[in-house]
Design a protein that fits this description.
- Strands 1-22-21-20-19 form a 5-stranded mixed β-sheet, with no helix packed on it.
- The protein has a domain at 1-30 and 206-263.
- 2% of the residues lie in helices and 48% in strands.
- It is mainly β.
Length: 263
């Protein structure tokens, strides 16, 4: 039986027009483990630990498993492309690409093949068979091909944006790549031309596209419409460990419970 999801309207004094709305719980899914998850555009769920990834169907039944103990601890996974998942092993500066059965494609990509630059963050890309990297030492975003050749580089982000900030995450959304800090997110096109910045106010960025973006602030979900300047704000009766967004659907994770919601 689904428990009720309590939603309250929160009013903010800013340039966004705030109006009431509600989340509708479609279903509740029980995950196999409490580990973090990612969800791809086809609705498949990926649950991962330090050394293993399990692909689940939309009802959380296990389908495939991947593990490579020789490469160490998994730092991050990126499922933006359901046919080519990216797994980043930071300590060994290695990237592994997996197909939709979690089988390894070709060989492991060594990020230090052509450079001694330390790579701290990676993100997969839907364009040009490449991926994004970020180095804290150089404060630089790069687009690389699948042999780790550098295709495009931003240069120092502080100089480019005229802002001083530290990057905690990079992520591609709808042909934009974002360098995300605690207070702000900096938006670049897929040629690394700087477009704009958005203020996060200690919110976690969940999703971004031209028309709107979604953030989380503890037990609140905030949806900002960048066209009409409407803002939807939902206060939940619990604080999710993760909030994910795919195909106009919000996924709220707490422990082994995953609530599938629409608004």
């Amino acid at each position: 039986m689904l428990r009720p999801l309590i939603v309250f309207l929160i009013i903010y004094a800013n340039t966004f027009h705030v109006f009431a709305d509600s989340l509708r719980v479609i279903r509740e899914i029980t995950l196999p483990e409490k580990h973090p998850i990612s969800i791809d555009a086809l609705g498949y769920i990926y649950q991962y630990s330090d050394r293993e990834i399990t692909k689940l169907d939309s009802l959380a039944s296990p389908l495939y498993t991947f593990s490579n103990n020789t490469l160490g601890i998994i730092h991050s996974i990126d499922v933006i492309n359901p046919l080519e998942l990216m797994v980043f092993y930071k300590l060994n500066a290695q990237v592994v690409l997996l197909d939709n059965t979690l089988s390894e494609q070709n060989k492991t990509i060594n990020l230090n093949s052509f450079s001694l630059q330390l790579i701290d963050l990676t993100a997969n890309s839907m364009s040009n068979d490449g991926f994004w990297t970020y180095s804290k030492n150089d404060h630089e975003l790069q687009k690389r091909d699948q042999t780790s050749n550098i295709l495009t580089r931003s240069g120092n982000l502080n100089l480019l944006t005229n802002q001083t900030f530290s990057v905690n995450e990079i992520k591609e959304f709808n042909n934009f790549v974002l360098a995300i800090s605690t207070a702000k997110a900096f938006v670049f096109d897929n040629r690394l031309n700087y477009k704009k910045r958005i203020s996060l106010n200690s919110e976690k960025l969940i999703h971004y596209q031209d028309e709107f973006y979604i953030t989380q602030k503890q037990n609140e979900i905030l949806i900002y419409d960048q066209v009409t300047y409407d803002q939807r704000s939902f206060s939940l009766d619990f604080t999710p460990e993760q909030i994910l967004f795919q195909n106009q659907t919000l996924y709220l994770k707490r422990g082994k419970s995953l609530l599938v919601c629409q608004y």
